[in-house]
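Re: the 174-residue chain
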Amino acid sequence: TCFVEPTLALRELDPAPTIEVLTPDFRGDLTAVDRIIAVGPEVYNHNLETVPRLYATVRPEADYQRSLDLLRESRSKAPGIPTKSGLMLGLGESSEEIDRTLRDLRQAGCSLLTLGQYLQPTQRHLPVDRYVPPEAFAALKADAMALGFAQVAAGPFVRSSYHAGELFAARIDP
């Protein structure tokens, strides 16, 4: 896959960098997960992006359960490799939906999490439903940590790769 060769090439560097792979859901082909974890990235990342109710609108090519299964498979096959996911907020999700999604991620074995504000990249993309205030991100981070996430980055400008090295280094896997 396009993830295996670059990972192997990076392993040749001296010193070898910390590698986090951010993958698609491979349309449910879990053998792709096996090939990636076989080369030993330090973090396996697949972003859920949103809550189940909004999947058909936000991620029409993806499937919520398929994404959770992918994260679960990674964690199951390689328990020593932390799994990471991220959500964009401000697309119309409710607090209850966010809470349920965070619980789903934990049940799938996800231990690292990013929560950021969705920003409409162009007029052809979905509009922003609401801007989440910084204090709401702080509360969500506390809630996620209470659910057992090892590390959480949450804020309006947080993205999937936001301080990825620091998030990895500071983790204590549950």
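The CA atoms of residues 50 and 58 lie 7 Å apart.
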